[in-house]
Write a structure and sequence with these properties.
This protein is mostly helical. The chain is built from three helices and no strands. It has helices spanning about 1-15, 20-35, 40-55. The longest helix is centred in the first third of the chain and has 16 residues, at about 1-15.
Length: about 60
């Protein structure tokens, strides 16, 4: 899974650095994830990708 995670993070970071809205970058990163994991549900993919690009939530 490291290659998938790297691809997701590159996609997200690259789009954000180009000035794309965060939501669009996240949607594209989810698409990359689902390419690598086609059996994953959309909700599951969004949760995993959000964690990967934002990191754990700290209280």
């Amino acid at each position: 899974m490291p290659a998938c995670r790297d691809a997701v993070q590159r996609c997200y970071t690259g789009l954000c650095q180009c000035g794309q809205p965060e939501r669009h970058a996240l949607e594209a990163a989810v698409t990359v994830y689902r390419f690598h994991h086609p059996d994953s549900s959309l909700a599951q993919a969004e949760a995993i990708v959000s964690h990967w690009v934002a990191g754990p939530v700290r209280h």
